[in-house]
Amino acid sequence: MSEKSAPSDPLVPVGGLLYFGRMLDKMRKHARGDLREDFHANLGQGMDRRLCAFLHIDYQALKAQVLAGASDEQALEWCRARSRRLNEDEVLIWNDFLRKRGWNDQAAPALENYKAEAGLAGRDDIRTFLDFWAVDEGRAR
Fold first, then answer.
1. Tens-binned pLDDT, residue by residue, of the chain (141 aa)
2. Are 20 and 50 members of one domain?
3. Can you tell me the distance from the alpha carbon of 33 to that of 39, in angstroms, rounded to the nearest whole number?
4. Both 76 and 10 in a single domain?
5. Are residues 51 and 90 in the same domain?
6. What is the structure's pLDDT at 1?
7. Do residues 50 and 96 both lie within one domain?
8. Distance between CA atoms of 8 and 112, rounded to whole angstroms?
9. Which of 68, 79, 119, 140 is most buried per CB count within 10 Å?
10. 66 and 135 part of one domain
11. Residues 116 and 56 in one domain
12. What is the number of domains present in the chain?
C-alpha cells in the first residue's frame, strides 16, 4: 500500500474552476485508501459541500461518477449536463471566494482553530485556507 497523502493542489483549475480537481482527487484517494486520515471527516463537507451546492450537484452522485472512472473533465461535463454551465462571472465568483476564504470572513475563527491545532497559531502569513492548506500539505513553508 502506498503512503497516504494529501489531496492535490486546489489552485489547479479544471475547466477554469479552482478546487474541483482537488475534490475529485480526495474521492479517488479515499476510495483507494491513499488519503491522509485527517481529510476523512470532511469528505463531502466544508469546501466540497460548498462547491457542490454552487454547482447544484449532489456530492454522492458526483462521487459515483468519479469512482466509475470519469476523468476530471468528464466529471465537470457531467455536472454541467445535470445542472448548469457556469458563465465566466460565476467561475470568477467561485474562484475569488475560494482564494479569500478565511480572510476577514465568518470562516476566520475556524481557520485560526485549524492553525492552532497544527501548531501554526503564530503564523500571520497564513491568512486564508489556501495558505493553510499549502503549508499543512507541504507545498509552502
1. 458 999 999 999 999 999 999 999 999 999 999 999 999 999 999 999 999 999 999 999 999 999 999 999 999 999 999 998 999 999 999 999 999 999 999 999 999 999 999 999 999 999 999 999 999 999 988
2. yes
3. 12
4. yes
5. yes
6. 45
7. yes
8. 23
9. 79
10. no
11. no
12. 2
Give the separation between CA 31 and CA 91, rounded to whole angstroms: 28
The amino acid present at 134, given as its one-letter code, is A
Residue 64 and residue 121 share a domain: no
Q: Specify whether 91 is located in the same domain as 120.
A: no
Enclosing domain of residue 111: 101-141
Q: Is 137 exposed, middle or buried (0-12, 13-18, 19+ CB in 10 A)?
A: middle
3-state DSSP call for residue 51?
A: helix
Residue 53's Cβ-count burial label (10 Å; 0-12, 13-18, 19+) is exposed
At residue 3, the pLDDT reads: 85
State phi, psi for 17 to the nearest 5 degrees: -95, 120
* pTM, rounded to two decimals: 0.94
| DSSP tag of 98 | H
